[in-house]
Fold:
Amino acid sequence: MSTVSRRGLLSLAGAGGVGAAAGLAAGILGRDAAAGPAEVPADTVPFHGERQSGITTPAQDRLHMAAFDVITEDRAELIALLKDWTEAAAALTAGREAGATGAVGGPYDAPPEDTGEAMGLAAGRLTLTFGFGASLFEKGGSARFGLEGRRPAALIDLPHFPGDQLQEQRTGGDLVVQACSDDPQVAVHAVRNLARIVFGKAQVRWSQLGFGRTASTSRAQQTPRNLFGFKDGTSNVKSEDTGLLNDHVWVPAGAPAPEAWMDGGSYLVARRIRMHIEIWDRTSLREQEGLIGRTKSEGAPLSGGTEFSAPDFDAPGRAGEPLIATSSHVRLAHPSHNNGVHMLRRGYNYTDGSDGLGHLDAGLFFIAFVKDPRTHYVPMQLAMARKDTLAVEYLEHTGSGLFAVPPGVQQGGFVGERLFAT
Structure:
């Protein structure tokens, strides 16, 4: 079945009038309802489904993540916000414009419903993933939006980890949107339009652009490199690892009724990690590999083998010391030293100019999805913050967020619908 793009629909509007385009659109919608789902273009990722896209989806090249503070205290307005976001997300991820009239199809003397910078661009496998922060449920000791008792126990306030230098303007948020695409302008366009849609109800608290993924979420993808020049995410959970996903990423069914809205969802941990690039660049290759525990060229563990060989943490090195140092990153992050815990990482490199002192403000925007941050993130981060020489001497955490990511949206529903069910 052929499809009509957002460009094609607007072209018809120009040739035959808005009414003609609207009539065609109605015909298309009616035909699709009768004939079944429309053909999905090759460069799009379906928005609706059992799980939210942007988690196990093969990681795209670019990121724009934004956290929002909800400035209304009206429950009905919050629900309307989420419905508007859902409608817009379904359109944007399908390669269409936001709003019924898009960027140029509305009244000439009114602001357009779409900002327009993505006209002529493909969707680039755009995904939009939504989550809720703890402050959406309560703030200042008071419950919000009638959500008393609905905050999941796993949606904790992350502890202050040793070495944290968190900046308030880069931390927290009531809502989060993760936009990933192979085209950076498409990702920015999506977040910009979502922010425009909720004007007067919510405002951006912080946002982060990312380039160059630092993890693979499919076995079809090669392992990328971070700004230290090392392969990153070799042992990451992949979309093909169904058992690991069920054990470590997806929230299992069976939670108490007030938390059952999260069944099948996940938890998103976001950490803005600045790398001390200039110090690293003056560090010898021997020391760099020792700090990581892998070779820089192939990403193989220092105990030998290839990139995907299991590290031998008992292999002896010089003077009876382990070949892979006890303070190395790979040892402290490995599941065998974290009670078997895995996580699905979707991080990105970032560069935000300089700090005004001649140093790059650059590093890793860490993103991970886990089924419970209390067991699958906090213990590992505490150990690494205390023992990992790489983390202690070369990394600085400047931003942080934890968000409950509900399960997917069904046709006719909206993001987080089960949270607001009575």
Summary: The chain is about 25% helix and 20% strand. The longest helix spans residues 75-93. Confidence is low (pLDDT under 50) at residues 1-36. The two ends are 40 Å apart (CA to CA).
